[in-house]
Write a structure and sequence with these properties.
alpha/beta; 11 helices; homodimer; 7-stranded parallel β-sheet
Chain lengths: 315, 315
């Protein structure tokens, strides 16, 4: 894989980036090389996470947002994380390349990726895929996820700035807010501002925000309407301005550190799995301890402690 | 903590069970003892997981279901997992003891527990808490969780039988189904059968089911109305009958094994954390490797591999 600036030669970059992402997504032989090469390259993409339940009009809004970025001469990459079923593999988001009206624009790169049943709305490969995209030199990276509640919490570990899209027709928005969205949002986008209930939705959010800890920075609230195409220019302006505020305050550096630590944790878990397969004595011990557990002679917690004691001895 | 049958002496059992659950939930000093003692005790509680988005009328339905179980002379425990925010700790479900109209019934035990921001709608303590409840000898244990999409997938690792409650007014039910609910449900309960859209909802689900793998056992579909109090006796009947079918086929044993393996995995992860704190040389090494990662000299994956290499050497 040849790392090329998308700004300098979008044609070659598009092809090479596609290959690099496929390697990382499917854990191909060259994925380690790709990750190491792209990880070291210093770039300055602004990474915007955009999340929300199905039906809030997220994709139409993102479509319009992409256009305003492209109109401003910026290069844009979109990574759409599709919460496909872990069992049937059915896709939810559909083909974004065809769905976005700017799909074939020269300055736009679009990629869909399955979350593969990984809890949290993103896949274990998502952070590394974002890093690969960054290395190909884009001004803007948009990460789109879908879900309601706790599932979105992971996106804040991948993006620099997280927007949550809500709409009045989704019912119990206040309860969804209580379940954790309040804390991950840097910005609330109230979409479908043209339909009834938008003012109640805003009141609900303001109320929910008033219950939160006063020391936290309150997220902004912005009303948009994809139908009337209003608020999208304002959305672009707010995103870029707020990004700079967080960057200047050092908050962005703290978030990037958090994201790295989260990825480190995932890597350690993978190693743990590997080590039980590597040593024959360990994998036999594991089988026999599991048998005791199945017979209710050992609780899972006691079984884990026992396995780790043997791990410490054996290595 | 004294393990007592709730059927024999509900007053003492209620008090002791409350204490035991508090010990496990908060990881108190005696939690290991409680877990070991309750784990070995063979009991035969039927564990029913009931899940659904906020607003589908889940709690009213569960309230009526509890009553029909109690009317049949059964002892019932309810564990309501509250997806409180990991940051503010705000509760979503409210006080179930007061919300259920049978809250003070002699044969009913109710406990709320916070998911504490743990992804997946349950807390890392949930499986052990269920095991503790089982040891106190209940006929029925109901585990209630809330959420939409991937977040529910964990409940199938705790319950013997999982019901997903849907209602026509929740919008995009088909999309929610595609996102994974199809595979975890043993039973779809279509609540609010009295309002418009119930037939479309049923059609949507049948269509979604038709897309799934034909080898899997299709979940049943049942219509209920909490308002008209219809379908609840039928719900009770189906739950008990289907439980027996799964039990007789050996499927229940397979599920219990899966659940134990899931808990073992959680225990191994906790040990992994512990071990990095235990050895001074390891924790120093970790700090220095993290610093390299922050400077983009090492990718998180490479950092994790390096840390594990040192772990293997040091032990």
């Amino acid at each position: 894989v040849k790392i090329t600036s998308f700004k300098t030669n979008s044609k070659i970059a598009r092809r090479e980036l596609g290959r690099a992402l496929t390697a990382v997504e499917n854990d191909l032989d060259n994925s380690d090389v790709v990750i190491n090469e792209t990880f070291n390259s210093a770039t300055k993409s602004k990474i915007f996470g955009i999340t929300g339940a199905p039906g809030v009009g997220k994709s139409t809004l993102i479509d319009q947002l992409i256009k305003t970025f492209l109109d401003g001469g910026l290069t844009v990459a979109v990574l759409a994380i599709d919460p496909s079923s872990p069992f049937t593999g059915g896709a939810l988001l559909g083909d974004r390349t065809r769905m976005y009206s700017s799909g074939l624009h020269n300055n736009l790169f679009i990629r869909s990726s399955s979350s593969r049943g990984h809890l949290g709305g993103i896949s274990s490969k998502t952070p590394e895929m974002i890093k690969v995209i960054e290395a190909f030199d884009f001004d803007i990276i948009i990460v789109e996820t879908v879900g309601v509640g706790q599932a979105e919490l992971d996106i804040m570990k991948c993006a620099h700035f997280t927007s949550v899209v809500l709409s009045p027709n989704m019912g119990d928005s206040l309860q969804a807010l209580k379940a954790g969205l309040i804390e991950i949002a840097d910005l609330f986008v109230l979409n479908k501002a043209d339909i009834a209930g938008i003012n109640q939705l805003e009141k609900d959010i303001l109320f929910a925000l008033s219950l939160g800890q006063s020391t936290l920075k309150k997220p902004k609230i912005l009303k948009t309407s994809s139908t009337n195409q209003t608020g999208v220019l304002e959305l672009k302006k707010v995103l870029l301005e707020e990004y700079e505020v967080l960057n200047a305050s050092g908050e962005m550096d703290r978030r990037i550190k958090d994201s790295l630590n989260f990825q480190l944790e995932l890597g350690l878990r993978e190693n743990l799995k590997r080590i039980f397969n590597k040593f024959d004595s360990l994998s036999k011990k594991r089988s026999s301890i599991e048998e005791e557990m199945y017979k209710y002679k050992l609780s899972p917690r006691a079984a884990a402690n026992k396995l780790f004691k043997d791990l410490e001895k054996n290595l």
